[in-house]
Design brief:
Layout (H helix, E strand, L loop, with lengths): L2 H6 L3 H8 L5 H7 L3 H23 L1 H4 L10 H13 L2 H11 L9 H22 L18 H28 L2 H34 L14 H27 L12 H29 L9 H26 L3 H25 L13 H22 L11
Helix pairs in contact: 4-15, 6-8, 6-14, 6-15, 7-8, 7-10, 7-11, 8-9, 8-15, 9-10, 10-11, 11-12, 11-14, 12-13, 12-14, 13-14
């Protein structure tokens, strides 16, 4: 559509172009009737009333949480796992803005968007988990500087705000607000520094929570240096999640990749695979050192030891070898397979630390109720739908037409 034609269109066409993808309201509504949207609508239609039910009748009616198992799926997966899988925002942001590797600029915006949505979902999951979520307000002015949870709460709030500010650049491009866009571009370097600082603090502090509970966490997963393990694994999660997300986006949103955003995705994937191999190898040996320091090798001969070996060999060592082989031989499919295994490994580690191997000596293990599973699925579905809605409209995977 030419500039003259756009100027000749009535004011209502601006809404159609920006929100309805150039279609009329009737055409847009008709385009929504797809099998994927039908499944998503079913998940959300059941999940939202379940969230209302949880707030109306409490945790006891909607979960299997108890005094011995106060942390469940919403903390172990929605919060612990959601935050670590959203680490691609600071990982790729630092790579591009701080280390000057501009070839990765094509995947910076989707990484920031994924990070922002991941943190929003994690925050909502936390509010659903809290017995009295309205009391979260008190963390903003309570003097709790000696509390790990206080530090995590403030860093998560600050980092989510930073991600939002970083994403205002494509948002202002979309709206055509060039002056505001230029202001935020000038502030991007400072925002990236803040994002690295806040991420380093709260990603490691999440591990610091379990430092305070040596009797509850199994010795094979507990370590006085668990905060270092959490931070290193966050870098792995950031790299691996970006590879997975970029691979999927390149297929699902293929028409979006044009101009300079149509970068050589395979080349970027190989580069990320090299970094993933190095960090995963380091993480593997740090995990071995942690078990040695705790004198916990005797537990390897137990059932818990077999489960620990599954995590270490199948989801840490294996993806590191796949990353190294794929990057060295430039086999993109191998690198992508490694990223999927690595992401699953990080998810498994967070579930092991926060749920499975947590309270390992209790006679009755925690098993989530179906409502907990469905609400988690609902939040994930909303996050995916929000990502799709934004990418289809804003200059995230492509340059602005202007």
């Amino acid at each position: 559509m030419s500039d003259a034609t756009q100027r000749a269109l009535p004011e209502a066409s601006w809404f159609r172009r920006k929100f309805l993808l150039g279609m009329t309201a009737k055409e847009y509504l008709r385009s929504l009737f797809t099998p994927v949207n039908a499944v998503a609508a079913l998940v959300v239609a059941v999940g939202l009333p379940l969230i209302v039910y949880r707030f109306a009748f409490g945790l006891a009616a909607s979960t299997n949480l108890s005094q011995t198992s106060p942390w469940g799926l919403w903390i172990g997966f929605d919060m612990m796992t959601g935050i670590v899988l959203a680490a691609g925002g600071f990982t790729i942001g630092a790579t591009v803005e701080l280390f000057g590797m501009k070839e990765y600029e094509a995947i910076e915006r989707p990484a920031i968007l994924t990070g922002f949505l991941g943190y929003v979902i994690a925050i909502v999951g936390l509010l659903v988990d809290l017995g009295r979520p309205w009391n979260i307000f008190f963390v903003t002015f309570t003097n709790g500087t000696a509390s790990v949870l206080f530090e995590i709460a403030w860093c998560v709030m600050c980092y989510t705000t930073v991600l939002l500010l970083e994403f205002t650049i494509p948002f202002f491009e979309w709206l055509g607000l060039r002056n505001l866009e230029r202001v935020m571009r000038k502030a991007l370097l400072a925002l990236t520094v803040l994002s690295v600082m806040f991420s380093t603090m709260h990603q490691s502090a999440l591990g610091g929570l379990f430092m305070l509970m040596p009797g509850r966490l199994h010795p094979l997963w507990y370590s006085p240096y668990i905060f270092i393990l959490f931070f290193v694994s966050a870098i792995i999660a950031g790299i691996s999640t970006v590879i997975v997300e970029t691979s999927i986006s390149h297929k699902v949103f293929a028409p979006q990749f044009r101009g300079s955003s149509a970068a050589d995705v395979d080349k970027l994937t190989i580069g990320l695979g090299k970094a993933g191999a190095i960090v995963l190898f380091a993480y593997f040996f740090l995990k071995l050192q942690a078990v040695t320091d705790m004198h916990a090798w005797g537990y390897v001969r137990s059932g818990w030891g077999a489960w620990w070996l599954v995590e270490m060999l199948g989801f840490v060592l294996l993806p590191s070898l796949l990353y190294a082989y794929g990057a060295r031989n430039r086999k993109v499919k191998v690198v992508r397979a490694a990223s999927v295994v690595a992401v699953l490994g990080i998810v498994l580690n967070r579930l092991n630390v926060s749920i499975i191997a947590f309270n390992w000596n209790q006679p009755k293990p925690y098993v989530p109720k179906w409502m907990e599973l469905w609400i988690t699925l609902t939040l994930l579905t909303i996050g995916v739908l929000a990502f799709r809605w934004i990418v289809n409209r804003m200059p995230v995977l492509h340059e602005s037409p202007a």
